[in-house]
């Protein structure tokens, strides 16, 4: 039985207000602020039309890899992706993880139902594929196969071998919304009250969008996710998946403001906590950029 229930599909959007909006790079990157029922939500919207804006993920020696990679690129957003198994910089992402063909974590997390594959090259470079592993197997190409890597040791071995051979980047995460589910009995009060950040995969006008949703106010996980879904719906998106990103000790968020990449300082608490949340101490980094 899953321990992280999917949010309910229906949410009233009364009282939703637009706070601000800016767009850059011919509208391919947009920042929109909303207030819903007194809670603040900021959408960092990346259009995948034309493939100009791309996603990148680093999962081992993340900051060093980022420093070596970033030359010649305009970085638009940096945040933590998968949850970390340690406060230390040398911690690993929780759940199955492969970084550009190097296996970082072979141990699956039974509660995390989302598998995210990051395209490192080819026509889909910078795109993401998301699989709801409670509903479907992970299907891959070169060679073709379908795997249940959480529950089958043989499938897991073959899946990770495929990732190594093909230089794949992938990580396991927690879904809080999946369009693959026809119904839900979610408990909206599930989870502690705290700030949240989500990654939504959506469509608008037949174009795929990746939307990082920053939710700085303290709310339960599923309630905050349901409000995020309402904001995305209001903004005109057809939502496919919403994933929960790490806002614990590795609560990193840097965003482009039209001039430079700004540390949004989302972390709360003591100076010790703030130090852990520096980008140079990140266990893993999810990055959006253009060239």
From TrEMBL:
What span is annotated as the signal peptide, if there is one?
Answer: 1-21
Q: Which UniProt keywords apply?
A: Signal
The superkingdom listed in its UniProt entry is: Bacteria
UniProt-recorded name of the protein: Phosphodiester glycosidase domain-containing protein
